[in-house]
Amino acid sequence: MSTLTLQHRVVRQPGLVATPMDGETVMMSIDNGEYYGLAGAGSRTWELLAEPQTLDQLCATLTAEHEVDPATCQAETLRFVGELLALGLVKTC
Questions:
Q1: What pLDDT digit, counting tens, does each position of 36-47 carry?
Q2: Is 19 helix (H, G, I), strand (E, B) or coil?
Q3: Mind telling me which InterPro entries this protein's record contains (predicted)?
Q4: What is the per-residue pLDDT for 30?
């Protein structure tokens, strides 16, 4: 896939089990048996990706909920979601 942009629509991959634990989100991939942990804004991002949305929409929500300027939120969200995509935890749609 080419570089992610704010116009890409992203959603969680099916087949992942996730649960909140001590302020984090702990996930397990049924397909590969790997465990993952997300905290802070990463947990909130995971929660928001339950439904498909553009990264621009995701950034708008995160910017409204956290004290972060839009440019920083966009850069960090593109980086983080890119990592989730590389791990196979989310997909574009």
A1: 999 989 999 999
A2: strand
A3: PQQD, PqqD_sf
A4: 83
